[in-house]
Each structure stands twice: as structure tokens, then as C-alpha cells.
Write a structure and sequence with these properties.
With 104 residues, the protein is mostly helical. The chain has six helices and no strands.
């Protein structure tokens, strides 16, 4: 895809003709894997949130879920998935091993 084609798509679908659009296109063309990694992360977070909402029902708290995600810092998504699974398990039954640490 040429730069002009990308700019036309950006203008058509993002409704943006500003310098920011040009800078975004330049960044995406120079490092396309960055955008892919952002989308994989976003999809993972959405999947984990939906899982927590489904499993916890009325016990689900968006604020607490965000805290559990953010407190882990930067780590591989596989470990994030494992942590959220442990969080859900502990939220359902706080007597398990390590639950005090996860829930505090």
C-alpha cells in the first residue's frame, strides 16, 4: 500500500486530515508489528474482562479488575491470563493458597 493510499483510507475511515494522521501512518509503516501487538493485547484484555464478568457475576468490579491488570505491570500475556484466572478463583473462594495476597 502506498503512503497516499494509506492517507486516503485514514481520511475516509478515521475522518482525520491532520498532521497527526500523517504521523500515525508513518509510524505504522515503519513498525507494523507495533499495531499488531497493541491489538493482540487489547483482544486479550477484552477476553479476560468478559471471562471475569461471566464467572463473577455480581461480584465483578471493573475498578478491581483494572487494579488486578495494572498491578502486574509489564509482563507476557500468558502470565496475565494465569493471574486473572487465579484472581477469579480467589474472588469466588478466598480461602485458597495465595488468595490473601491477590485480593489485598
Amino acid at each position: 500500500m502506498t503512503r497516499k493510499q494509506a492517507e486516503n483510507l485514514y481520511e475516509q475511515y478515521a475522518w482525520d486530515k491532520s498532521d497527526l494522521a500523517t504521523k500515525d501512518i508513518t509510524r505504522y509503516q515503519s513498525s507494523p508489528a507495533t499495531v499488531t501487538s497493541y491489538m493482540i493485547g487489547q483482544e486479550t484484555f477484552i477476553k479476560l474482562r468478559q471471562l471475569a464478568e461471566k464467572e463473577l457475576g455480581p461480584k465483578f468490579s471493573m475498578k478491581e479488575f483494572h487494579y488486578q491488570i495494572l498491578r502486574q505491570g509489564e509482563l507476557p500475556l500468558k502470565y496475565m491470563e494465569e493471574h486473572i484466572s487465579r484472581f477469579i478463583k480467589c474472588k469466588k473462594d478466598s480461602s485458597g493458597l495465595g488468595c490473601q495476597e491477590i485480593l489485598s
